[in-house]
Amino acid sequence: MRLDALRVDGGPTGNGGFLGAEPEADVAARGLQALRELAAAHPGARIIVVSHGTLIRLALMSALGEFVGTITNAALTVVSLDDAGWSLEVLNGEVLTPTDDLDNDLDALDAAPAR
User: Fold this and answer.
1) How far apart are CA 90 and CA 68, in angstroms?
2) Rg (CA), the chain
3) Whole-number Å distance between alpha carbons of 48 and 52
4) What is the mean pLDDT of the chain?
5) 21 or 106, which is more confident
6) Mapping DSSP to helix (H, G, I), strand (E, B) and coil, where does residue 64 land?
7) According to the model, what pLDDT value does residue 10 have?
8) What is the C-alpha separation between 27 and 35, in angstroms, rounded?
9) What is the mean pLDDT of residues 69-83?
10) pLDDT in tens, 51-65
11) Which of 90, 86, 97 is CA-nearest to residue 36?
12) Residue 19 to residues 24, 49, 61, 74: CA-CA distances in angstroms?
């Protein structure tokens, strides 16, 4: 496929993005920074963030230090931030339990630390 020929290695998913595009690690850092700024500006508030699924997914991967799969279009995903850090409560409309496995292998995570 022609699109695969433009892929470059690296980034949180192991796919650094596409030739000539913003690298995944940069997208993740930018998205996480926006989430941090919103959380700091509105402590304890519920905030709605609407964005492209890939930006949300990469920012969440950076925040959580875990792999997060595809974010479905128009699906509800809920995260929270407390003194312990970020936690994922709902993914694509499905409530998660503490034992849910998100395929948590992010050796390729080279974005900034979550806190």
Assistant:
1) 12
2) 14
3) 13
4) 82
5) 21
6) helix
7) 67
8) 12
9) 92
10) 999 899 999 999 999
11) 86
12) 11, 28, 22, 28
